[in-house]
């Protein structure tokens, strides 16, 4: 059995992203959320994810934009992020070994935690605003 190599090139990013999102699309728990939101725009989404992870992990600045806003109003909670992380870690560990692979898992964990926090923050703010407006 050959030992996995680290993430070092755009081809590695594409393998990671394609494998990960292939699993996500089929996942019984989070697949429908992604498939409903992205619909027939998967090629566009995957291209954006290649550029995002290429920028984050390989320091080749090909991604521009703000990743959070499209996620702001999704019907998701911590359990959804936990499942996303399970699939991500499993995918990275199956395909790669090394410092950049470890960095990918750390960055994904930090992003999931921050997105979860911000989604809850905006959800709470919306609820408070609705309460104030109803008085």
Word description of this protein:
Keywords: Heme, Iron, Metal-binding, Transport. InterPro entries: Globin-like_sf, Globin/Proto, Hemoglobin_trunc. By secondary structure, the protein is mostly helical. It has one domain (10-133): Globins (Globin-like), CATH 1.10.490. It has five helices and no strands. The mean pLDDT is 91.
**Share in β-strands:** under 5%
SS class: mainly alpha
Topology-level CATH name: Globin-like
Shape: globular
Provide keyphrases for this structure.
single chain, 135 residues, mainly alpha, Globin-like, globular
Can you summarize this structure?
The protein has about 140 residues and is an all-alpha fold. The chain contains 5 helices and no strands.
What is the strand and helix layout of this fold?
Blueprint lengths: L9 H17 L4 H8 L3 H17 L19 H18 L3 H35 L2
């Amino acid at each position: 059995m050959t030992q996995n190599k680290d993430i070092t090139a755009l081809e590695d990013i594409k393998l990671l992203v394609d494998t990960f999102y292939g699993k996500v699309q089929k996942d019984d728990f989070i697949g429908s959320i992604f498939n409903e939101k992205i619909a027939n725009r998967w090629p566009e989404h995957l291209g954006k994810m290649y550029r995002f992870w290429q920028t984050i992990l390989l320091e080749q600045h090909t991604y521009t934009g703000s990743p959070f806003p499209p996620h702001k109003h999704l019907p998701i909670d911590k359990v959804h992020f936990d499942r996303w992380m399970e699939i991500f870690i499993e995918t990275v560990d199956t395909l790669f070994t090394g410092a950049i692979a470890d960095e990918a898992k750390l960055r994904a964990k930090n992003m999931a935690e921050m997105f979860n926090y911000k989604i809850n923050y905006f959800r709470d703010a919306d609820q408070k605003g609705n309460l104030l407006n109803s008085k």
